[in-house]
Structure formats: structure tokens, C-alpha cells
# Entry
Amino acid sequence: MKHRIWMLAGLCLLWGCARGAAPVRVPTEPPMELSPRIEEEPMVAPTAPPVEAEVALPAAQTDAEAEESFAGTCQSVGDRLPFSSDMDGDGEKETLSLAVSVGEDEYARWQLVLTDGAETYTFLTEVGEDMPFDLYAGDLNQDGQWEVYFCGDLASSDYVIYALGPKLTPFTFEPDERAERWGGSQTNAELNGFIDGFEDDHLVVIGVVDMLGTNWGVRNYCIGDDGVIGPISTVWTYSEEREPLVVTRDLPANAARARKEPGEAFLIPAGEKLTLLCSDGCRYAWFVTDSGKQGVLTLTYDENGQWFIDGRPEEDYFETLPYAG
Ligand SMILES: [Ca+2]
Ligand SMILES: [Ca+2]
# Structure
């Protein structure tokens, strides 16, 4: 539990208790089609086996306790390992356990073990204070086959999610549409962000959106019919508890429309404050001004990842932008 509290406390600070806030007005958008073909790439495969130190994991519950408190929907099992349930519907229980050790390269190796080592899978994360992680299990898409989700921190606050099937076969993720700006380094074996919960058949993910500063947004993912995990909508919704951005020169904007196409153009004058509501992390950021006007900003980026609005760097339009340190 300690590791979860550490992680949640830090994230709540960043996220500003968004889940308890009033709903943010978000432009509606039809569900995105999941792309049918994504080539599978290998997951991280650790190559340095030496183990220097074993790290204690939370005390185990009994199988009966674990099963009784598990309603069948996806939920955290990180503090009740080993965890037993019939994960593939064959009438026999499988048992999930997790071992962690620190290698000479000072990376943590999280080895997920299924039923006496019948299947294993290893994730690498950085070694940090309490090494935050969480493990979730359940049948998100209700096809009778459980998934296992592992969240960890690859580097300083570079949270990452992996998903595995009942035989610990890795799922693939739809490639992040923001990867082009990052230089295409993103793989489809992992998802940047961390799990904030589950809603119906959706995985709720919080992630960083680096556009008009560093912003934390949330969006939902599901498992497509092709088995690929992708976002329901391209839009990341921001917390309402955000510092407004102070405009320092005429800022070109457009009226927000239900679809993505921007509406009528207008200028936001210097001195106006605007609060970002959401963005797609690639081109559009929706906002509301202090005077209650809603609209959308259109951004572009160059080969260095610098953001521009109407040809000017984004920083030129605002007193400050909330960049992460
Ligand atoms: Ca089984
Ligand atoms: Ca499933």
C-alpha cells in the first residue's frame, strides 16, 4: 500500500484532484476508429541478470480474502499479491505474483509470475524512492480473458503502462499520435501515463501533454476488436483547477465547434486570461476566457518540437507557461 500512496499522493498534487471536480466542458467528438494493423514490437527484455538486492513487497492476503474482495472488474491487485482467480475461464485458478530486484545497472526488475512460473514477464523501471508501481487485473473488454496492467516509472516521472493477456502475452497499443513531434521514438509496446481507474470497459489514463506548457490530461482507452488498445477520443481533458494563462499580445483563436474544424476567427486581446480545457496534444487546444468565451487555439511545431501559433513561438503570447522543471 505504501508504494501506491506515494504514487497517488504525488499524482494528486499534479492532477489537482480532478476526479472530484465539476465536469469540464469538452468539445464532443465521435469515437476514434482503432487502426486495424499495428506491427508488434518486442517488450523491454532485460539482459543483465545479476541481482544485488531483494526488495520487500506487501504482505499477501489469502486466496479467499483476495477473491472475496474482487468483484470481477478491473482493479488494483498490487497490494494483495499473490492474487488468485480463474483468469482464462477454464475453471482452474491462476495465481499472479510479482518479484522485484535491483540489478547492477540500477534498474528495478519487476518479474510477474503466473502460477508457479508457468509464465513470467519482466518489466524494467528506474530505482527511486519506494519505486512506485501498481498492478491491475480484470477483464476490461469482458471477453472471458483477463488482462494484467502494470504501471511504473521509467525515469523521473516518465510513467508508463504495460498490458498483458492471461498467458502474460503483451498487448500492443495504438501508436501515440504525439510521437511524430517527439521524433517517432514512441513504440507501441507501452503507453505513456499511468492508470487512474476504470470506467465500464474503459481504461482511464492520466498523461502529460506538452503543449502550451506541461499539462496533465486524462483520456480513456479501450481494447479494440483487433486486440489493440487505443484511445476512445483523441482529446486529453485537463483539470479545472488550473492557473489561467495571461495573454500578452493579440492571440489568434477560433470559435469552438462540436467537430474539430475551428469556427469563426477572433482575437483575444492582451490582458485577457484564458484557462485551457483540453487538447489533442498535436494541433488544437480548447479554452475558456475569464469573460466566458470559449474557443480553440491552433498550434503547429517545427523539427525541434517548438510550438507556434500563427508563426510565433507559443511563449510570445503569454506571461508564463507552466513548463515542468
Ligand atoms: Ca484458468
Ligand atoms: Ca479481456
Residues 1-54 have pLDDT under 50 and may be disordered. The helical segments are 2-15, 63-68, 179-182. The longest strand covers residues 94-103.
